[in-house]
Amino acid sequence: MFFLLTLSSALGLAFGNILESIGLRAAKSIGSLAKNKFWLGGLLLSVIATLLYYAAMAKYNISLVQPFMALNPALTAILGWKILGEKMSRKIAFGIALIFCGILIDGTLAGEAAGSAVAGASLLWAYAGSALALLAVACLIFRKAEITDSLCAGVGFGLSAVFYKSICLDGLTPLPIDLRIFIFGVLYIAAFVCSQIGLRRGRALFVIPLSAAIGLIVPAISGLVVFGEPFPPQKIIVIVLVFAGSILFVRE
Fold first, then answer.
1. With contact defined as beta carbons under 8 Å apart, do 48 and 15 qualify?
2. What values do phi and psi take at 29, rounded to 5?
3. DSSP string covering 145-197, please?
4. Is the dihedral of CA 59, 63, 68, 70 positive or negative?
């Protein structure tokens, strides 16, 4: 079930990215997107893939699920090369190879025991605040739109995953209102908007890998810091390989 959920999610996101990118490039205005079959099809595919991703996160450790999402940029790069005619260099090919190596190692950890519940609300909020503060500093340093769009999307998606995992483990407190639900929604919507803007005015082969790399690191570290998940040496190797592979796309 673990491989079915994670692999299906990554495949769906990759094909969704390409369809959305085609639709965004062809759209003459924001309003025309509502009639664009490519964008609507990509959006529907991304929604289904995201639901599968959240199903995997609810059942398995976030630091275990997240590396498999790096298949998204790897497959997006391959599809972008074949369908959109984007550049596929040796460096990008090597990055894809690193990602696949990391995922193969990660697959061997699929049977690990689940971590503990959230170690306190203050830790969750402190982690989120620190990530957003680092994002603000990074956006001041890297002023290029393509980079800032990707960073905002990556941190937004990553933190929304952290809040979702917190709700899954800890439950809603108190019912029926929980500030974490509101923050999760705001972060996810903001990240989605940033990713769409990035795809509109940037390269899919740049925006998707960078946002995915950041979106990997933020939840993966939270697995250790916030959720008390097991972190054997193999998992560190997985994160290093996947992150390095994603960054190779950006450096190219």
1. no
2. -155, 165
3. HHHHHHHHHHHHHHHHHHHHHHHHHH--SSSS--HHHHHHHHHHHHHHHHHHH
4. positive
CA 121 → CA 117, 178, 201, distances in Å? 11, 12, 38
- Decide: 165 and 62 in contact? Cβ < 8 Å: yes
CB atoms within 10 A of CB 140: 9
Intra-chain end-to-end CA distance of the chain, in Å: 35
pLDDT of residue 186: 93
In this predicted model, what pLDDT tens digit does every residue of 27-70 receive, in sequence order?
Answer: 666 667 777 788 888 888 888 998 888 888 888 888 778 777 77
Alpha-carbon distances, residue 174 vs 42, 116, 124, 167 (angstroms): 36, 20, 16, 11
Distances (CA, A) of 87 to 150, 165, 195, 205: 19, 36, 20, 8
CB 208 within 8 A of CB 72: yes
DSSP state, residue 36: -
Instruction: For residue 112, give the DSSP letter.
Output: P
Q: Is the pTM of this model over 0.90?
A: no
pLDDT, tens only, 139-184? 888 878 878 888 899 899 999 988 988 888 776 555 556 788 889 9
